[in-house]
Each structure stands twice: as structure tokens, then as C-alpha cells.
Write a structure and sequence with these properties.
Layout lengths: L17 E6 L2 E8 L7 E4 L11 H8 L4 E4 L15 H14 L5 E6 L1 H12 L4 E7 L12 H14 L4 H5 L5 H13 L13 H16 L12 E6 L8 H9 L4 E5 L6 H4 L1 H11 L3
Parallel strand pairs: 3-4, 3-5, 5-6, 6-7, 7-8
Antiparallel strand pairs: 1-2, 2-4
Helix pairs in contact: 1-10, 2-3
Protein name: Alpha/beta hydrolase
Keywords: Hydrolase
Pfam family, one: Abhydrolase_1
């Protein structure tokens, strides 16, 4: 890692400035951190998420030695445009964004819906990606993935009734350990106090849910095309994207690595960030 007097390296996501790039008629909002140079790690975020939804305990350790880029999809947060009705179109937007920054080779870190978009991107552009991290996600056409809509709305209702953040219900078990982990996760997302992103609007959220549903009900992709080193991780009780779908991905992607954390849900990697972050750092090493 090197620094200059004029531009010190930012390795805290809470301090990473938001900037924009315009391509294909969309102005994309994004944040960069970590030492620049080499292959960047591009982060693909989850349903309803904006730039403010990355856990600093996961992203900061990776940014300690890697150039990290997180971005808002079109129609989400501070990005202009409209979120598309199909996730493979979201993958097209991601490709446009990455190429607009001048990159021809990246690593990907993805979570949930971001992992679905990442899969579509790799299938379309296999030469773009060197290493792939898929967490809390599943394959196109995966069994019961289309049920995410019902689970999401039910947990939003439960959260509203208890004046909680929906992620506490959607990402974590409702046992003692899960409740504690959920509250800690939500508090970590508040560590950034300046230059906060705009929350997702209802229209974009609804469009994303329907796109995930279509992804779940569509013809499976040929994931044998993914020959990159791939790390797959989840909790053992994921209600949003059933944990068996992580095992399904592991079977479909040759030589992939699979980690299932015990007594945890969709946000297993956040609940077990102290164990997971070092594994992700080592996996993504240049």
C-alpha cells in the first residue's frame, strides 16, 4: 500500500467519497476505497440496497490491500435511470459501468440479488472476471427462489409492527444470537455519517422484487461456463434465498468453495464477519 501527500489512501468505507460516471445515458453513483492499481474488486449489492448498505466489517478488510468499488444500479440511490425488469439487463448495466471506468478485468464480491446479477454478468462476459464471491444467493431457475417476494413483504410487516429495521428479520434468525447480530449489523450501517445515499424508492424496490421472481422462475443458466475461482457462502437457515441454493451453486460451478455458517440466516456472512472477512481477503488475494 502506498500513499502520496496529495491523495492518501482511504480504507474506511465510512469515509469513501461518492462520485459519478455517465455511460449509456445513465449517471452511476459509486464509491472507491483501498489502494488503486491492479484488478479492482467490484461489489454487487442486495435487493433494496444502496451504497450505504455494505457492512464495513466486510468491505473494509478487503479494501485494506485491494482497490474496492461499490456502485448503485440505475434508478437506485443516487444513480439516474430506471432499474430494469430483468436481472440480465442489470448485468448489462453493470458491464457498461465497469467499462466506463476503463476496466477489462475485475474480481466480484456479491450478496443476494447482487450475486444473481453477477452470475448473469459472468455468463455473458466470462473474460471480464478473475475471481467470484457469491454470498446469500442462488442460481437462475433455483428451487423456491421465487418465494422471496412473499417472505420479504411478510418480514417488512413484522419489522414495521416492532419498529425494527426489516433487515433484522430478513437477514438474521430470531433467536438470541440472531437478534443481537441483527441489531449490531444495522448499527454498523450507520457508521457513515456524511454524504449518505438516497434510500431506494418503492417503484425500484418493486421492480427488483419482480425481477428476482422472474430470475427464479426462468430457465437455468449454464454455469459450467464459470471456471473462475469461486467462493460461495451463506447461513444454514436462509429464508430469503434458501440455503440449499448455495449448495446447488456449489454443484454447478466446478471446483467452487462452499462455506455454510451454523445457526444463521441470509446475513450469515455479516453475523460471522470476524470469521468470514479473513477468508474473503485470502480468497481475493492478487
Amino acid at each position: 500500500m502506498s500513499t502520496t501527500d496529495s491523495e492518501p489512501v482511504i480504507t474506511s468505507y465510512a469515509q469513501a467519497p461518492t462520485t459519478t460516471v455517465t455511460a449509456g445515458g445513465v449517471t452511476y453513483a459509486y464509491r472507491e476505497l483501498g489502494p488503486k492499481g491492479g484488478i479492482p474488486v467490484v461489489f454487487f449489492v442486495h435487493l433494496a440496497a444502496t451504497l450505504d448498505n455494505w457492512d464495513p466489517r466486510v468491505i473494509d478488510p478487503i479494501a485494506a490491500n485491494r482497490h474496492v468499488i461499490a456502485f448503485d444500479q440505475p434508478g437506485v440511490g443516487a444513480s439516474t435511470g430506471t432499474f430494469p425488469g430483468e436481472l440480465d439487463q442489470a448485468a448489462d448495466h453493470a458491464y457498461t459501468f465497469i467499462r466506463a471506468l476503463g476496466y477489462t478485468l475485475i474480481d466480484i464480491f456479491s450478496f443476494s440479488m447482487g450475486g444473481m446479477i453477477a452470475q448473469d454478468l459472468v455468463v455473458k462476459h466470462p473474460d471480464l472476471v478473475r475471481k467470484l464471491v457469491l454470498t446469500g444467493t442462488g442460481p437462475r431457475g433455483g428451487k423456491d427462489m421465487d418465494k422471496v417476494v412473499g417472505v420479504t413483504y411478510w418480514d417488512i410487516l413484522r419489522a414495521t409492527l416492532t419498529r425494527s429495521d426489516p433487515k433484522e428479520f430478513l437477514f438474521f434468525n430470531r433467536d438470541t444470537a440472531g437478534k443481537k447480530a441483527g441489531k449490531a449489523f444495522v448499527e454498523r450501517l450507520k457508521e457513515r455519517t456524511i454524504d449518505r445515499d438516497e434510500p431506494i424508492k418503492n417503484k425500484a424496490f418493486s421492480t427488483q422484487l419482480k425481477a428476482i421472481q422472474r430470475f427464479g422462475r426462468s430457465t437455468p443458466s449454464d454455469l459450467s461456463i464459470i471456471t473462475q475461482p469461486t467462493l460461495i457462502a451463506n447461513g444454514d437457515h436462509d429464508r430469503m434465498v434458501p440455503s440449499v441454493l448455495s449448495e446447488d451453486l456449489h454443484k454447478r460451478i466446478k471446483d467452487s468453495e462452499l462455506i455454510i455458517y451454523p445457526n444463521s440466516g441470509h446475513g450469515g456472512i455479516f453475523q460471522f464477519h470476524e470469521k468470514f472477512a479473513p477468508i474473503a481477503v485470502k480468497f481475493l488475494a492478487p
